[in-house]
Amino acid sequence: MPEIAAPRGTRDILPDEYAARRWLLDTHRSIAESFGYRSIETPVFEATELFSRGVGTETDIVEKQMFTFDDRGGRSLTLRPEGTAGALRAVLGAHLDQAVRPVRVQYEGPFFRAERPQAGRQHQFTQVGIECIGDRSAALDAEIIEVAWRFFEALGITGIRLQVNSLGNAEDRTRYRAALVAYYEPLESTLCDDCRRRLHTNPLRLLDCKRDAALVERAPVLWDSLDKASRAHFTAVLRDLESAGIDAVRNDRVVRGLDYYSDTVFEIWHDALQGAQSSLGGGGRYDGLAELIGFPAMPATGYALGVERILMVARALGTLPAIEPAVGALVCSVEPAQAEEAARVARTLRSSGIHTVLDVADRRLDRKLRTAGRLGARVAVIIGENEEAAASAVVRDLEGRSQQTVPSAVLADTVLRLMGGGE
Ligand code: HAM
Fold this sequence. Notes:
Elements: H1 15-34, E1 38-39, E2 45-47, H2 48-54, H3 60-64, E3 68-70, E4 76-79, H4 84-93, E5 103-112, E6 124-133, H5 138-155, E7 160-166, H6 170-184, H7 193-198, H8 213-218, H9 228-243, E8 248-250, E9 262-270, E10 279-285, H10 289-292, E11 300-306, H11 307-317, E12 329-333, H12 339-351, E13 356-358, H13 365-375, E14 379-383, H14 385-389, E15 392-397, E16 403-407, H15 411-419
Parallel strand pairs: 1-5, 7-8, 12-13, 12-14
Antiparallel strand pairs: 2-4, 3-4, 5-6, 6-11, 7-9, 9-10, 10-11, 14-15, 15-16
Helix pairs in contact: 1-5, 5-9
Histidyl-adenosine monophosphate (HAM) binds near residues 83 and 115.
C-alpha cells in the first residue's frame, strides 16, 4: 500500500522547527502584551458569509482561494482565510467594546488559502496578528505599526521595509475609483482578463496587476483624491511613526488585497523573500467592516504577519536562537532487574525539574549511553545491582566524560550541578 503523504500545501512542524515557531509566537505575544493586547482564539471555520461580506466578493481570497464546504445541515462554512473578520465578530458579539475602548486583542493560529503552493505560500499557514477595536484615532494606527516594528526588533530581524499608504474614506475612494476608471477605460482592450472584469467592479485591484508595471506606474495616485480630513489623519500617523523612530516609506501603490480597509494601510516587506511572496505581513484601518458583517459601526485597526515567511527570513539572516537540548538526563539500568529502581530515580529527577528520559530498552549499556548522547542529554544516570543495593547511582558526565557514584539523597543536586556546567 502506498504511504499516505501530508496534503498538498501543508507542512508538518517537526520538533526543531516547532521550537523556532514557539520562540516567534512567544515573542509576538509578549511584545503585544507589553502594549496591553490580550490573547484570543476564534474558530478555524466560520460562516462563509463572514468572509464574502467582510473581505469582499471581488477579492482574490473570496473569488478563488477559500476552502468552502457545507455542513450536514447544508450551511456553507469556510476555513478561515484571515483573522480580522472573525476577531471583530468575536469581540463585538461578546460586547467587549462596552467595557473598555479600544479593545486590544492578539491572536496566533492556522489560516487557509487555496493558492498555488510554492516557497512562502501554502494552503495552510500561520499568522500572528493584533486588532485594536473601538477608536478611530490615528495614534492607534501608529501604535499597531509600532507593535509590529518592536516585534521584528525583538526577533533581531533587520532590513524590514515598511510601506504605508492611505486609502482615505469611502467618498475619497469613490473619487479615486472614478479617476482609475477614467485612466484605464481607454486601455480596456489591452488589459488582462482579471483586470477587464474588475475595472467596473473593483478598479483598485488593477493596481495589484503584475502584468504591466509601467501601466500601474502611470495610474492616478490615491493621495490626490483624499479630502482634508483624510490627509490630516495620514499625516498624523506619519508624524507618530517618525517620533517613534520607525522608518516608514510612503507607497501610493499599496492598496491591499482585502476590501475592508480605509485610511491607513501598510505592508511589511523583506528582500530575503522573493517576488509576490515578499510580504511578511500587512494591515491597516477597517472602520467599515463591523457594519458589513451586521454589527453597529465600529472603527478598528490591526495587522497580521505570516509566521512561516518570518521564519524563512530569520533562517536566512541567521537570527534563529540555538535549539536548547530538550533532555537533561537519561536514566538507565544495567540489567532489567533494576528497571523499577531506574524508573523511581527518573521520577525523583523530574520532580527536581530535570528533563529526564527513562531508557527502557533491553540493550547493552554502551548502546544506551550512545542514545543519551543523541538526545542531547548532559548526564547519564546508571543503576546497576550494586547501586540499587546501596541506594546510590552512577552519574556520568557525558561532556566531561567523568564518572562518580553518588548516594540517592544528593543525586538530583549532582545532576543539576553538572547540567549547570559545574564541577
Ligand atoms: P494579508 O496581507 O492577507 O492580511 O495576510 C497577512 C500575511 O499572511 C501575508 O503578508 C503573508 O505573510 C501571510 N500569508 C498570506 N497568505 C499566505 C499563504 N498562502 N501562505 C503563507 N503565508 C501567507 C490579512 O490577512 C489581514 N487579516 C491583516 C489585517 C489584520 N488587517 C487588519 N487586521
